[in-house]
Amino acid sequence: MDAGEDVRRREVHPRLRLVATATAVLALSGCGSDTKRDAAAARRFAAFPLYWVGDRFESWKLQAVLGLDGTRTFVTFVYGDCEPSGGDEPSCVPPLQIQVSPLCGHLEAVTASRRKIRGAVVGFNRDGAPVLLTARAQVKVYTGEGANAHAALEALERLRSANRVPPVVRASDRLPAAVPASWAD
């Protein structure tokens, strides 16, 4: 991997800060998420394919799945804890967040990219997060407190289906490539 493909910590994107703040509020209030219920709800989710790394990634357990209620245009799998700080409105960024949305935007972020992970094109959007484009979904991975510089790409390498919306893939399967077909191998 050359320096241009290295994942670096960047300024926190406003949408990510919102998710991180919501996660911090859950942690502070003692009302944490029921991850078994969240994982079951993700398996039943039918709007678009969801990809995750399972109940655990490295040393971080799945803490929450946000957006399954239809209030967002994306679903976020939150892995690991973080320590809220910051005075009047404490917040933090969990070690790993996988954000999945229907394939529709950010295509320009990776059109020049020829990097692929398991057959799907990966690029970086303006907020520095890697964006993987599959046939029906786009997957962004954000890293935060305690994550190493390669955690985002490592997570993309381990993606598998969280629900049964086609195409369903295992961690060892090729990921279905997004159109245009010229991106496919």
List the helices and strands and how they pair.
Blueprint: H1 14-29, H2 35-44, E1 51-52, E2 56-57, E3 60-66, E4 75-79, E5 96-102, H3 107-110, E6 116-117, E7 120-124, E8 130-133, E9 137-143, H4 151-157, E10 160-161
Write up this protein:
With 185 residues, the chain is of the alpha+beta class. The chain contains four helices and ten strands. It has one domain.
Which key terms come to mind for this protein?
10 strands, globular, disordered C terminus, alpha+beta, about 180 residues, disordered N terminus, single chain, two-stranded antiparallel ribbon, 8-stranded antiparallel β-sheet
Q: Work out the count of structural domains.
A: 1
SSE sequence, one letter per element: HHEEEEEHEEEEHE
Task: Give start-end ranges of low-pLDDT stretches.
Answer: 1-31, 181-185
Radius of gyration: 16 Å
Give the count of helical stretches.
4
- Beta-strand residue percentage: 15-25%
**Strand segment tally:** 10
Strand arrangement, largest sheet? 2-3-4-5-9-8-7-6
Distance between the termini: 19 Å
Give the overall pLDDT as a whole number.
79
| Broad shape | globular
Helix content: 10-25%
| Largest beta-sheet details | 8 strands, antiparallel
Structural class: alpha+beta
